[in-house]
Write a structure and sequence with these properties.
This protein has 234 residues and is an alpha/beta fold. Helices cover 40% and strands 16% of the residues. The chain has helices spanning 15-23, 44-59, 74-84, 91-102, 125-139, 152-157, 195-198, 202-210, 223-233; strands spanning 30-37, 63-71, 108-110, 144-151, 168-172, 187-190.
Length: 234
């Protein structure tokens, strides 16, 4: 059994991992998962990515202790949406949507370190996962591999096939590994979830908001998120 040693974690909820640590027999290597992105808004596909990554890591023999959705800083989202002439949901709305998917989960939570408005600039994902690793190091003394979960588009664009020193990467993609399967030992390949989830996107959700087709939102997001988005838009 591994015991927490500090509660100083600055924007990374640790209640769920604390419970998992207390129940762990420490017989398997441990990891946590984190995925970043605008989450403008979060939808079922974001949680499905974490679920797919969990399955992958457990099949590799890891004990998955926790995972976080980390919505991006407003400076990144606002600039990106302005360029696209699209909706930029306020940070509190994006956090509320993400929390709707994680509140009742034993594993998944929302990280707010990245989105903290006190931060003036957007920290890209290598900075985010390093901060999570540091927070975990303050929280407990167990050796925990921090794994960044991403899609194949980001994986290829950022040249992640060689991995990131000190971290794991779980790339979620159907039909084989990107880049011909030439992956570092710290890069893991997870199968994508079902087709209906893969076809979801925040872009499609925003399209329905712009069109005021709130009746179509429940097919894309959970009922709580549909309500949050309709309340915000009206």
């Amino acid at each position: 059994m591994a015991e927490p040693r500090s509660s100083e974690t600055s924007g990374w909820g640790m209640n769920k991992i604390a419970a998992r640590l207390a129940a762990s027999d420490c017989q398997r290597p441990a990891c946590v998962l984190v995925t970043t992105g605008a989450m403008n808004p979060a939808h079922r596909g974001h949680i499905a990515m974490l679920d797919a990554a969990r399955t992958c890591m457990e099949e590799k023999g890891y004990e998955v202790l926790a995972g976080w959705l980390s919505p991006s800083h407003a400076s990144y989202v606002d600039e990106k949406m302005h360029a696209l002439q699209d909706i930029s949901l306020p940070a509190p709305v994006r956090v509320a949507c993400a929390l709707a998917y994680t509140r009742d989960s034993e594993l998944w939570d929302v990280g707010t370190w990245e989105i903290d408005p006190a931060r003036r600039t957007w920290p890209d994902f290598p900075i985010v996962i390093r901060n999570l690793k540091e927070a975990l190091g303050r929280f407990c003394d167990r050796d925990i591999l921090v794994c960044y979960v991403c899609g194949s588009d980001l994986f290829v664009r950022c040249g992640l096939s060689r991995g990131l020193p000190g971290f794991g990467i779980v790339v979620v993609e159907r039909g084989g590994c990107p880049e011909g399967g030439r992956l570092s030992k710290t890069v893991f390949h997870a199968e994508q979830p079902a087709q209906e989830v893969r076809n979801l996107s925040s872009t499609l959700v925003r399209k329905q908001i712009r069109s005021r087709r709130f009746d179509l939102l429940p097919a894309m997001v959970c009922p709580e998120v549909a309500g949050i988005l309709e309340d915000w838009a009206t």
